[in-house]
Design a protein that fits this description.
Layout (H helix, E strand, L loop, with lengths): L4 E6 L10 H7 L4 E4 L16 E4 L2 E2 L2 E2 L3 H13 L3 E6 L9 H10 L3 E5 L4 H8 L13 E5 L13 H5 L4 E5 L5 H10 L7 E6 L7 E6 L3 H7 L6 E5 L6 H4 L11 E5 L7 H8 L3 E5 L1 E5 L5 H8 L6 E4 L2 H13 L11 E4 L2 H8 L14 H9 L8 E7 L5 H8 L3 E13 H12 L5 E4 L2 H10 L2 H5 L4 E4 L2 H10 L5 E2 L5 H14 L3
Parallel strand pairs: 1-6, 1-7, 2-3, 2-6, 8-9, 13-14, 13-20, 16-17, 16-18, 18-19, 20-21, 21-22
Antiparallel strand pairs: 4-5, 9-12, 10-11, 10-12, 15-19
Helix pairs in contact: 2-3, 11-12, 13-14, 16-18
The structure holds S-adenosyl-L-homocysteine.
The site of S-adenosyl-L-homocysteine (SAH) has 25 residues, from α4, β10 and β12.
C-alpha cells in the first residue's frame, strides 16, 4: 500500500479560478476529497472521475460532521494509503480549523502538506473594489473573527485595541454580530463615521455589497437582508469602492448562463461570456477518456506505413492519436507518405499544431461526402484507410469507404462519456430558480439539453432561453418552450450581443 497523505488545500474564496496551481494539481490526483460548504462546486470537477467526494460542510446550524469527526475521517482515509485532499474555503489556516486537522495528522503519524489559499478577507474586498491596504488610507490590515460576541466577558478580542487600529479591519463570520461589533468599536473610540462595507458571497456571481458607516451599516444590512457568508470591512479604504468597483460593473455580472454544447471542444462562447462577467455552466459536458482497449490503436500505429490514408474526424481524435503516437516513441514523421483527410476547421487547426496539412478537407462530415472528396485525389479501390475515432462514431464513414472498395480500419481512439454531474447541478439551479439563461447554438443542442432536463422544470421559473437563429428557435418551439431571445446575427457573437442587449434592457 502506498503511504497516505493529508493535503490541507485552500480552495480560494469562491471564484474557481482563484485556487493555486499546486492546489489544482493535488486535486486532480486525489483519491479522496473532503470538502466544505464554501468550496466552489466547479472545482470538484478537477478531481478524478473515480475519486471519493465527501461533503462535510458546516452551514450555520446544520453540521454534517463535527470537527472531531472530520479529523478522524481524514486520518482514517489517509491510513488506507489514499491521497486525501482536504479542500477548504479560502485559506486553510485562516479561520479554517486547518491547524486542528494538521495537529491530528501529526498525532496519528500521517504525512501532511499545507497548500495556502487566497483568503476571502482579502479577495472579497478586492472583488468589491476595496484594497485592504492603501498607501495613504491604511497601513495595516487585521483579520478578525466576528464570531465572538463583544459583550462576552471571556472574549479574546480586545475592542479597545481594535477601535484604535486605524487601518483596515476585516471581520469573518460576523454578520449575526454586526450591530454589536460596530457599536463596540464606536464605544471604544472609533470614529462613528468610519466607512464599513459588507461583502456577501464575494468573488462569485452572487456577490452583493452594501456600504455605510459604523453607525449606519447595521440598519442598511438589515434592510438589504444580508445573510452569511459575508465579510465586514471596516476602514477608510471602503471609500475607494466608488471608483474601483470592477467586478460588479461587468455587463453580464450576476448572470448564470448555461451553454449547451454539441461537442466537447473548449468553447469560445464560454470564454466570451465569462469575460463579460457571466457565470457559465457547460452542459451536457462530455468527458473524453482513453479507449477501454487501446490495443487496436497501438497496433495501427505500429504499422502506419501500411496505410494510404488516415481520416481525422475530430480534434479529440487528433489529440488521442498523437498521444498514442508519442507513447510509442514516434512523432509526426511516422505519417510520412500517408495522405490525410481532415474533417472540420478545428480538427485542421489541431493538426497544424503538429505541423501537418490535409490532402483533402471535405466540406461536411457526411460519410458519402467525405469519401467523394477523398476519391478526387485518386481511386480508393484497395486503398487502406485508418479511421481513429470515438468508440461510438456512426458507421456511415466506414460503410461509404467500403462501398468504394477501400479497406477501412475503424479504430477506437477515445471514449465519449456524458458527464451527468453538470446535469444534476443544472437541475438543482432550476429547482432553486437561480439560473438566468440557457443558450442554444443549434437544434441538436436543444435536443441534447431536453434529453436530460424535463421541459416542465423550465416552466414556472425566471430562466430565459436564448437561441442563435430561426432553426434553433423552431426546435425550441417544438419542445413547447419558445425562445425568449433570438440572435439577429446567427453566430456566437450575435448570440452574445443578443444576451447583452436583453440584460441591458432589464429593469434591475
Ligand atoms: N478559511 C476561510 C474562512 C472560513 S470562515 C478563508 O480563508 O476565507 C467562514 C467565513 O469566511 C464566513 O462566515 C465569511 O465571513 C467568510 N467568507 C468565506 N468566503 C466568503 C465569500 N466568498 N464571501 C464573503 N465572505 C466569505
Amino acid at each position: 500500500v502506498s503511504k497516505g497523505c493529508i493535503y490541507l488545500v485552500g480552495a480560494g474564496p469562491g471564484d474557481p479560478g482563484l485556487i493555486t496551481v499546486r492546489g489544482q494539481q493535488l486535486l486532480s490526483q486525489a483519491d479522496v476529497v473532503v470538502y466544505d460548504y464554501l468550496v466552489a462546486p466547479k472545482l470538484l470537477r478537477s478531481a478524478p472521475a473515480n475519486a471519493e467526494l465527501i461533503y462535510v460542510g458546516k452551514k450555520a446550524g446544520q453540521h454534517t460532521l463535527s470537527q472531531d469527526g472530520i479529523n478522524k475521517l481524514l486520518v482514517a482515509k489517509a491510513k488506507t494509503g489514499a491521497k486525501v485532499v482536504r479542500l477548504k474555503g479560502g485559506d486553510p489556516f485562516v479561520f479554517g480549523r486547518g491547524g486542528e486537522e494538521a495537529l491530528e495528522a501529526v498525532e496519528s503519524g500521517i504525512d501532511f502538506e499545507v497548500v495556502p489559499g487566497i483568503t476571502a478577507g482579502v479577495a472579497g474586498p478586492a472583488y468589491a473594489g476595496i484594497p485592504v491596504t492603501h498607501r495613504t488610507l491604511a497601513s495595516n490590515v487585521g483579520l478578525v473573527t466576528g464570531h465572538e460576541t463583544p459583550d462576552k466577558t471571556d472574549s479574546d478580542l480586545d475592542f479597545e485595541a481594535l477601535a484604535r487600529w486605524r487601518g483596515t479591519l476585516v471581520f469573518y463570520m460576523g454578520v449575526g454580530n454586526l450591530e454589536r461589533i460596530c457599536s463596540a468599536l464606536v464605544e471604544h473610540g472609533m470614529d462613528a463615521d468610519t466607512p464599513v462595507a459588507l461583502v456577501r458571497w464575494g468573488t462569485t456571481t452572487d456577490q452583493r455589497v452594501v456600504t455605510g458607516t459604523a453607525t449606519t451599516i447595521a440598519a442598511i444590512a438589515r434592510e438589504a437582508q444580508i445573510k452569511p457568508p459575508a465579510l465586514i470591512v471596516v476602514g477608510k479604504v471602503v471609500g475607494l469602492r466608488d471608483q474601483l468597483s470592477w467586478f460588479e460593473r461587468r455587463p453580464l455580472f450576476g448572470q448564470r448562463i448555461v451553454v449547451t454544447r454539441a461537442r466537447a471542444q473548449a468553447s469560445s462562447f464560454t470564454t466570451q461570456l465569462e469575460q463579460l462577467g457571466a457565470d457559465v455552466i457547460e452542459m451536457p459536458t462530455i468527458r473524453i477518456t482513453p479507449p477501454t482497449d487501446d490495443g487496436p490503436l497501438q497496433e495501427a500505429i505500429g504499422r502506419l506505413s501500411d496505410y494510404d490514408w488516415v481520416v481525422f474526424t475530430s480534434a479529440n481524435a487528433v489529440e488521442m492519436f498523437f498521444a498514442a503516437l508519442a507513447a510509442a516513441g514516434l512523432d509526426s514523421r511516422a505519417l510520412h507518405g500517408v495522405k490525410l483527410c481532415i474533417i472540420g476547421p478545428v480538427t485542421a487547426e489541431r493538426l497544424s499544431g503538429f505541423g501537418l496539412k490535409g490532402d483533402c478537407q471535405p466540406a461536411n462530415a457526411l460519410g458519402r461526402d467525405v469519401v467523394e472528396a477523398m476519391a478526387q485525389s485518386g481511386d480508393l479501390t484497395g486503398k487502406r484507410v485508418l479511421c481513429p475515432r470515438s468508440d461510438i462514431a456512426p458507421p456511415d464513414l466506414i460503410d461509404a469507404l467500403t462501398a468504394r472498395g477501400a479497406k477501412a480500419d475503424d479504430v477506437a481512439a477515445y471514449r465519449t462519456e456524458s458527464d451527468c454531474a453538470d446535469a444534476e447541478q443544472v437541475k438543482q439551479l432550476l429547482a432553486d430558480d437561480r439560473l438566468h439563461w440557457v443558450t442554444f447554438t443549434s437544434s441538436s443542442t436543444v435536443k441534447n439539453f431536453f434529453d436530460v432536463i424535463d421541459p416542465g422544470t423550465i416552466a414556472g421559473g425566471s430562466v430565459r432561453l436564448a437561441s442563435i437563429g430561426p432553426k434553433t428557435s423552431e426546435a425550441l418551439e417544438a419542445i413547447g418552450r419558445p425562445a425568449d431571445v433570438e440572435a439577429h446575427t446567427h453566430t456566437i457573437e450575435g448570440l452574445t450581443e443578443a444576451l447583452l442587449e436583453a440584460v441591458r434592457g432589464d429593469v434591475r
